[in-house]
Amino acid sequence: MDARSSASKTALMVCAYRARASRWPSPLFVDPWADQLAGKDGHAMARDIDLRFPPMEVWLAVRVAYLDRLVGIAVDRLSVRQIVILGAGYDTRAARLPRAGVRFFEVDHPATQAAKCARLAELDGYPIDAATYVRCNFETDDPVDRLAASGFDLHEPAFVIWEGVVSYLTEDVIRSAASRLATGLDPRSLLAFEFLGKNYGTGAKVQPADVGARTYIGDLGEPIRFGSDDVLPLLYDCGFRWVRVHDFNELALELLHDYQRERQFRFQRLALAAVQAPAAGWP
User: Is position 55 within any domain?
Assistant: First the structure.
């Protein structure tokens, strides 16, 4: 099977939204490679989602920008020198946010990673060697073992970004991966991931206006499987002892300086977790 045909389609859609957000009059970030990486197929999917969930572009822009900010804080204030992107998709942080002495590890399903590398090879000027690429199927492989085999230092702290992945995994897989991160990484490491509310994530009670977007994503081959209204118990069970959760209304207010109830950002959250509390200076 061709790698591109079995690679994540939603990752291309996300790339298209990053390209759009980069063209805002006052962008929260600029991704000069996103437009070409997304290609016609990624932009077509984004237009389809616009019809079903119009706030998607703003939501993704806020998500990317906030996580970018956390990378800077982890490196500058906590002296973290390892950034891990779990389920990296078409992430470009290794190229956009380079720091002297900082290593980026991109962990993803082999098919998606192969498709990404093929697209990167077609771009002029992209520093493909800026990241170490780690192949991992979260449903069958141990992410910590895969990282260690790729030169990751288990005795040094890391900032782990699990962006745009958790919603597509079962709770059992999430627990397994999170537990392994908590026990296998240096306890000074930090984990960040976003998740949906329980009703939307599990499909137990979905508003009529949300059915279209949820169905469309599922038809792309990546059904939404997980949601939670309180992720702290899960993280506690997995070994984390410091947890902070922000809803996207709070993040949008901080980054965009406005609040719009119709965005429904209150049902979408971002969690930060660590085995031990971060040193002073973490927000």
Answer: yes
Is 29 within the bounds of a domain?
Answer: yes
Per-residue confidence in pLDDT tens, the chain, 283 aa: 344 446 789 999 999 999 999 999 999 999 999 999 999 999 999 999 999 999 999 999 999 999 999 999 999 999 999 999 999 999 999 999 999 999 999 999 999 999 999 999 999 899 999 999 999 988 889 999 999 999 999 999 999 999 999 999 999 999 999 999 999 999 999 999 999 999 888 877 777 777 878 888 999 999 999 999 999 999 999 999 999 999 999 999 999 999 999 888 888 999 999 999 998 767 7
Cα torsion 49, 139, 69, 114: sign: negative
**Range of 26's domain?**
3-274
Per the structure, how many domains does the chain have?
1
Distance CA 241, CA 9 (A): 35
Radius of gyration of the chain (CA): 18
